[in-house]
Amino acid sequence: MTAYQQKKANLQEKIANYQADIDKLKNDRKAFSTHICFSALPKEDQFKQLSTQSKYFIDTIKMVAYRAETAMVQILREATSRQDEARMLVKAVYNTEADLVPDETEKTLTVFLHHLPNQSASKSVQQLCKEMTEAETIFPGTNFRLIYKMGSALSPRLPEV
């Protein structure tokens, strides 16, 4: 029993030392600023303004993304009864989780969009999935055709909405 108590006392002393080290490290961490002013960075680490060509390239990417979003909104406006909420629905699709399932033999990449909170939104997005699948888009850098579906790749197949 004495050996057990001695071992327990030694372990408790180690724990107390570790806890003191943790407290000291936490206090040291609090001394550091969480934000650094741009002017405080060394000259070699300060980033420079985008060149005009880079800015044009970034602006072009933004315009393409906006046009793609607008095309998706148009599809949803045709599929939903609440046309004024189509853009919010597209943004909800962007924020929802998705499962990606590649199929080597069929050369497809299936994107399973998880269902949205309400049935009517999921039904509208189902129409969007159908039209995007019909476009037969090839995933960049591969020869896989994109297929869009509602549901989860991990759950048993539910009937489509």
Q: Supply the helix-strand structural class.
A: mainly alpha
Task: Spell out the helices and strands N to C.
Answer: HHHEEHE
**Tally of alpha and pi helices:** 4
Task: Give the percentage of residues in beta strands.
Answer: 5-15%
Radius of gyration: 27 Å
Residue runs with pLDDT of under 50 for 5 or more positions: none
Described by the principal axes of the CA atoms, the overall outline is extended
Helix content: 40-55%
Average pLDDT rating: 87
Main sheet overview:
3 strands, mixed
Distance between the termini: 69 Å
How many strands appear in the DSSP assignment?
3
Spatial strand sequence of the major β-sheet: 1-2-3
Outline the structure in words.
The chain is mainly α and 161 residues long. It has a domain at 52-150. Helix content is 52%, strand content 11%. It has helices at 2-31, 52-79, 86-95, 119-134; strands spanning 98-103, 108-113, 145-150. It has a 3-stranded mixed β-sheet. A hairpin with a 4-residue loop joins strand 1 and strand 2 (108-113). Helix 2 (52-79) crosses helix 3. The protein starts with a helix and ends in an 11-residue tail after the last strand.
Key terms:
single chain; 161 residues; mainly alpha; 4 helices; 3 strands
Blueprint of the fold:
Blueprint: H1 2-31, H2 52-79, H3 86-95, E1 98-103, E2 108-113, H4 119-134, E3 145-150
Briefly, what is this?
It contains four helices and three strands, in the order H-H-H-E-E-H-E. With 161 residues, it is mainly alpha-helical. A three-stranded mixed β-sheet has the order 1-2-3.
